[in-house]
Amino acid sequence: MAxxxxxxxxxxxxxxxxxRRVEKRFPDSGLARVCGELDRVARRTAATVAWIERPILPLxxxxxxxxxxxxxxxxxxxxxxxxxxxxxxVTELVQGLESGINDLLFVGAAIFFLVTIESRIKRRRAxxxxxxxxxxxxxxxxxxxxxxxxxxxxxxxxxxxxQPRTMSRFELSRYLDYCSEALSLTGKVAALYIEGxxxxxxxxxxxxxxxxxxxxxxxxxxxxxxxxxxxxEPSPPAA
Length: 239
Prior knowledge:
Elements: H1 8-25, H2 30-53, H3 57-79, H4 90-145, H5 169-191, H6 200-230
Helix pairs in contact: 1-2, 1-5, 2-4, 2-5, 3-4, 4-5, 4-6, 5-6
């Protein structure tokens, strides 16, 4: 039966292969550097995901002990109450019930806080890592912004503001394709954080990163469609 979950090691190997391809065809380029950063992040991701999925046992033990102590304290307080020798008025009864309900609510809120503290710690670490991936996606997009398919048509004159545009049609198609692959892999790395951590806030953050990378890739593929429609050009095999 095929696996239905992402393998962090497989994702990291795919990113490493992409880094080698980019470095081979575009050595010392900005895209090669950002791919190298994505590779370093992916290598750290496996350890971070394992930490998130692993229970924090000392925290869980401390949570159980504190919850037991609070409940025991509430029970002792209730048991220490003595019935009044005189009849209790309605006002006093209401005040006593209100005080007891407030105590129960306070203990319940405190126990809820203790029970969810582990999830909040893991969520904070996951969101920090996901935010890093979102930043990488934007950096990748910056590298493809000025890669205009009309370069190869040789229309007009250069302004001299940008560096000379010397890429051939094939090289430009490879560059844009590498950007699209890097964006897709960025979304895959983000998805690793919710494989074993079903947190709604982290899930929403991952969905946002995947929507971002999909939207950016769509812009790249629009450029590629224009580039492929320009005409045929002899080119070496793709990497």
